[in-house]
Amino acid sequence: MRFYKSIIIVAAQALLARAEKVTFKVLAVNGKPYVDIGGQQHEMTLKEYPLYKVELDIDLPVEYNYGLIYDDGNAEQESFKRKREKGKKSLNEFFNRQLTTVQHPLLPKAYESFKYYKPSKLFDDNHIDTIIIKCDPTVLQNMYQDPVNREIETTAEVIYASPYTVKTFKQAKFSISGQSTRTVPKLSYKISNLNTEDNKELFRRTSIKLRAEHMDPSFLRDKIYGDVLNSLGVPAAQNKFARVFINGDAVGLFNLSDDISNSRYLRETFNKGEKYKTENSFYKADYCAHCEKGALYADLGYHGDDYNDIMYSAYIYKGKDESIDGHEHVIQEIIPLIKDIEAYANGSSQKMPLDIDTFSRYMIMEFLAGAMDNFWCKPGNYFLFKDNEKNQWYFHDADFHYSFGAGGEQEMMLTTPLHQYPPKVEVDVDVPATRPPLDAIRSHQEDEFIGIFHRLLKSGFHKEAIFPRIDSLASLIREDVEWSLGIPGVSQAATQDIDASYTINDFIQQVTSLEGEGIYGITPLKYFIGTKIDLLSKELNIEIPQEFDNSLGYVENPSQSSGLSITASWSVITILIMLISYILY
Fold first, then answer.
1. Which of 88, 284, 285, 491 could form a disulfide with 316 if both were Cys (CB 3.0 to 4.6 A apart)?
2. Inter-residue contact 557 to 126 (CB < 8 Å)
3. Could you report the per-residue pLDDT of 495-521, keeping only the tens digit for each?
4. Phi, then psi, of 254 in degrees rounded to 5
5. Is there a single domain that holds both residue 224 and residue 366?
6. What letter does residue 443 receive in the DSSP assignment?
7. Domain for residue 222, yes or no?
8. β-pair partners for 65
9. CA–CA gap between residue 383 and residue 282 (Å, rounded)
10. 137 and 82, same structural domain?
11. Which pTM does this prediction carry?
């Protein structure tokens, strides 16, 4: 009996060693894919567009690559080899991209995460998503011909694909997004109504933005800015990368970002995802040098009792209460808020109506990043949100692509010391250097404000923490950056940045250089960060330790991964179980 048991054990081991059913999966927007193993091509079948798969009985490890046969008969095969090891996850790989996932170094927390925020797996940034949009080609053409027309919107089928899943939304809404970016060749987009028929959402998001990042040869400024905001523990629009296709055509690599004005985002960020029982107050604050009414800015300062003053028109109501018009909302809510800020500043009130901690940390980051298009420098580009259940106003900063040495006045934004900030960056708008809520906070608790710099420079904004993360993100997106830079902009009515173009060498210089000036005068990312740290630490006499402080842990990545996939055939496992049962019996 012992002899037979030995034979059975050996047989079982042989089965497990050799008989493996291995799944290969690839995302292919166009064409019919196959997998090539040792020169033999295996046809793949469509599982759920754009995902194709095939299961093969092969020995592991194995080298392979994918090929595509297009509708016109032409074929293309990957020039590199992939390798599947035993126990390796069976992921949705993307045709002609060597990297599927990268485990990035995490940033240490400067402060605990914002207590009301609930992370979404949508923003797992260890991979690049794929967004496929199918819409009416006539309406799409109208968008391209008239991108400044905010009324053009169309129903679209939107497919989201990642290494882990494919989700389809058949009744999404699709439109051009942005303000000044509507006049450049590479357009930005908004996708809303991301609900399926059974009311499933895109990882608890119903609206997203696809930001073109046309002004940033590194593609990383928005991303790094958001990462540091997460380290600071403030409410922040999350973002990651996505390759985008519209009606079968490639349109490039984009920054997939939260839509701050979306009610789903607000409750996920400010209320742990729970529905609000009351309607909240929500406003967009603007800065406009050449508006029809004249120059205006939203400095949160009191501009007199004339409620028709142009400065009050910088606040735009974005809430859902339509019982009164937007200007009346401003009169009833924003002007009292501004007066309360003034009362706190002059000492007649002990309470600052804005949340001091989050507002102060936003300002710290604006200075460190040289955010020339944001509140401290140009008062605008932010939101105001009042959680009425908590009776608390929040400042919410937004739009950070003009940062870290991009967007003009690079030297001024880099070298202006804290005690002289903000610099005068636009001479045709007479904006005083005062910022009422910031000035009020600093007059009451300057030590606490400066303390944020000390804390952040030793943790989340430490060179040894942030530079490796930049390197890792850059390695993930490099192939897609090169692909994207070769795709012409779709706008047929562009009037700005028409001749602006970058190369892959510009990208590399922007993400690696520790010195000098880049294309169009844009300061390389690491050089700006490193120089800013050196200048500020000297000005404030901050001693930066060699190793960063991770005592609060790290900003965790909300991973979509759900564990290792099982590659062994179920029939083999069944046989093994039967054999083991027999032996034990």
1. 284
2. yes
3. 999 988 999 999 999 999 998 888 888
4. -130, 160
5. yes
6. H
7. yes
8. 36
9. 7
10. no
11. 0.92
How many other CB atoms sit within 10 Å of the CB of residue 293?
Answer: 9
The total number of structural domains that make up the chain: 3
**Which domain does 10 fall in, by range?**
1-19+570-585
pLDDT in tens, 394-430: 999 999 999 999 988 899 999 999 999 999 877 677 8
75-77 and 154-161: which strand pairing?
unpaired
* Residue where the block lists tokens 């034979």: 7
Longest dimension (CA), the chain: 100
Determine the pLDDT at residue 518.
Answer: 82
Local structure of 273: helix, strand or coil: coil
Q: What is the pLDDT of residue 439?
A: 97
**Cα–Cα distance between 261 and 275 in angstroms, integer?**
15
37/135 same-domain check: no
Cβ-contact 64, 81 below 8 angstroms: yes
The amino acid that residue 21 corresponds to is: K
Among 98, 123, 143, the domain boundary falls at 98
Domain assignment present for residue 403? The answer is no
Q: Is residue 448 part of a domain?
A: yes
Other CB atoms within a 10 A radius of the CB of residue 50 amount to 22
Q: Do 87 and 128 belong to one domain?
A: no
Within this chain, do residues 435 and 550 fall inside the same structural domain, yes or no? yes
Identify the pLDDT of residue 18. 54
Query: How confident is the model at residue 561, as a pLDDT?
Result: 87
Integer-rounded Cα Rg, in Å, for the chain is 27
Out of 39, 67, 98, a domain closes at 98
Residue 66 has a pLDDT of 98
- The CATH number linked to 54 is 2.60.40
Q: Residue 169, class by beta-carbon neighbours within 10 Å (0-12 exposed, 13-18 middle, 19+ buried)?
A: buried
What local confidence, expressed as pLDDT, does residue 20 receive? Answer: 80
Residue in 361, 368, 396, 443 with CA at minimum distance from that of residue 280: 396
Would you give the DSSP letter of residue 313?
G
3-state SS, residue 226: helix
Distance in angstroms (rounded) separating the CA atoms of residues 106 and 361: 20
Phi, psi dihedral angles at 288 (to 5 degrees): -145, 115
Sequence-separated contacts (24+) of 436-440 with Cβ below 8 Å: 436/299, 436/300, 436/301, 436/302, 436/338, 436/341, 436/342, 436/345, 437/300, 437/341, 437/352, 437/354, 437/359, 437/395, 438/359, 438/363, 438/375, 438/376, 439/345, 440/341, 440/344, 440/345, 440/352
Spatial distance between the Cα atoms of 414 and 529, rounded to a whole number of angstroms: 9
| 238 CB neighbour count, 10 Å cutoff | 23
Q: Please choose, from the candidates 157, 125, 155, 105, the residue with its C-alpha nearest in 3D space to the C-alpha of residue 242.
A: 125
Q: Supply 571's token pair.
A: 């029939």
What would the two tokens of residue 294 be? 């004249």
Domain-located, residue 328? no
Residues (pLDDT < 50) of the chain are: 1-12, 14-16, 564-585
Q: Cα–Cα distance between 135 and 299 in angstroms, integer? A: 41
